[in-house]
Amino acid sequence: MENQIDTQMVRRKGRRLVLFPIPFQGHINPMLQLADILHSKGFSITIVHTSFNSPNPSNYPNFTFHSVTDGLSESEASMADIVALVKLLNTRCVAPFRDCLIKLLADVSEEPISCLISDALFYFSQAVADSLKLPRIVLRTGGVSSFVVFAAFPLLMEKGYLPIQESQLEEPVADFAPLKVKDLPVINTEDPEVFYELVAGLVNETKASSGLIWNSFDDLEQPALATIRRHFSIPFFPIGPFHKYFLPSSSSSLLTPDESSISWLNKQAPRSVIYASFGSLAALSEAEFLEIAWGLANCKQPFLWVVRPGLVRGSEWLESLPSEFLETLNGRGHIIKWAPQQEVLAHPAVGAFWTHNGWNSTVESICEGVPMICMPCFSDQTVNAKYVTDVWKVGLQLESGLKREEIERTIRRLMGEEEGREIRERISELKEKANLCLQQGGTSCQSLDTLVGHISKLESFVFKSE
Asked: Which candidate, 153, 90, 123, places its Cα nearest to that of 379?
């Protein structure tokens, strides 16, 4: 048995993987978690990253890091239009990324490269990989259910659901129950055509790849996996939840988490705290911010609230809160700039998570058995929220807009009433399924073994100078 293990490791050793995350917090985290998982399976890891939002290499001593210039000016890097920024990155990074890959492939002092693993949103990387005869595997950092909808955009446009019309918001989307038109994953952008181009690039270049890795698991999204498999001929690897493979690993956070949140939670009663955090990209108006503040204050539950600098448009941090707000709390609320989220959700004091329903946050909440209050902002978040409330039934959505009375009422329903008890039971069952899938013989564990085998069979070409 010992010899067998040694032989396997020798065969895998010398297999190097190049990983290329798109530079947004919700995409960097899962890519670096995937790097940890594959490194534990005997692969060498090289991370290629943009200079914009670059990760800290000192947190990952086992990986090699290479930076590529993205050519973004300060104003471009800070623009609020995410669609325009992604488009720009897919244009500006082509030549620097290709040059970087050529250098890596030609470096005979390093182990040979088996494949490129890049974010689905870096769709330009497929053509670059093809030109260098390097296989590309895609990491999709969102859920399978939302990807099914993105893949159906041409059909949804043909049927008149897209572009979204105000008059149709409450209409059900045929063949995509339980989604309504308002749940379709779109992003407000100056040029909607660019958004549709981006989605087409994401879907078509994923189809052209050598495989697709999901941070999801079979028991959570089995129907969506079955649907997408009918339309894609490439192999799929649902190996999530990534963050549960190891104890909290190196931090890939672009913001510094405030550890005071844990000592504050230690003083709270079990399942009493509302944890509110809306991700790294969402932006609120001052009026919305104040409704959230008073909704939390009036619900009479203790709360831990992440107010990221820049969350409120036109404000640095908490300036728009009236002075009497903090006085009325009497220590019942704790406001911070960023939280160690996985630790917070795992804390016994946390009873609900008020979230924007980014995929990482949604999966982390499910894995800790914490019911959700859903406030999606854009893109796949609207689909994730609908699945949380109507398919998995492990949360409630703020349907009637951000009004303090509605916030209060929703918190009460989730924390105190029979409906909340049933939601807690359902999310506890999903938590158990998330744990089982990673155990020996579990679906994600098997899928990871299949992925390792798949990568080991891929062949790339090495460039040698004459």
From this structure: 153
Q: Could you write out the three-class secondary structure of the chain?
A: CHHHHHHHHHHHCCCEEEEECCCCHHHHHHHHHHHHHHHCCCCEEEEEEECCCCCCHHHCCCCEEEEECCCCCHHHHCCCCHHHHHHHHHHHCHHHHHHHHHHHHHCCCCCCEEEEEEECCCCCHHHHHHHCCCCEEEEECCCHHHHHHHHCHHHHHHCCCCCCCHHHCCCECCCCCCCEHHHCCCCCCCCHHHHHHHHHHHHHHHHCCCCEEECCCHHHHHHHHHHHHHHCCCCEEECCCHHHCCCCCCCCCCCCCCCHHHHHHCCCCCCCEEEEECCCCCCECHHHHHHHHHHHHHCCCCEEEECCCCCECCCCCCCCCCHHHHHHHCCCEEEECCCCHHHHHHCCCEEEEEECCCHHHHHHHHHCCCCEEECCCCCCHHHHHHHHHHHCCCEEECCCCCCHHHHHHHHHHHHHCHHHHHHHHHHHHHHHHHHHHCCCCCHHHHHHHHHHHHHHHCCCCCCCCC
What confidence tens digit (pLDDT) does each residue in 238-270 have?
A: 999 999 998 655 567 778 889 999 999 999 999
* pLDDT confidence of residue 249: 56
pLDDT at 12: 32
**417 C-beta neighbours (distance < 10 Å), count:** 11
- Per-residue pLDDT averaged across 52-66, rounded? 95
30, 139 in Cβ contact below 8 A?
A: yes
- Select the CATH number that applies to the domain covering 260-434 from these four: 3.40.50.2000, 1.20.1250.20, 3.40.50.300, 3.40.50.700: 3.40.50.2000
pLDDT band, very low/low/confident/very high, at 327 (cuts 50, 70, 90): confident
Q: Are strands 16-20 and 113-119 parallel, antiparallel or unpaired?
A: parallel
Which residues of the chain are in CATH 3.40.50.2000 domains? Answer: 2-245+440-457, 260-434
pTM passes above 0.85? yes
Share of the chain above pLDDT 90, in %: 85
Provide CATH code, domain 2-245+440-457. 3.40.50.2000
Bigger pLDDT: 37 vs 4: 37
203-217 per-position pLDDT tens digit: 999 999 999 999 999
In degrees, to the nearest 5, what angle opens at C-alpha 178 toward C-alphas 176 and 183?
Answer: 85
Task: Provide the residue type at 278 as one letter.
Answer: F
Other beta carbons less than 10 A from residue 166's beta carbon: 7
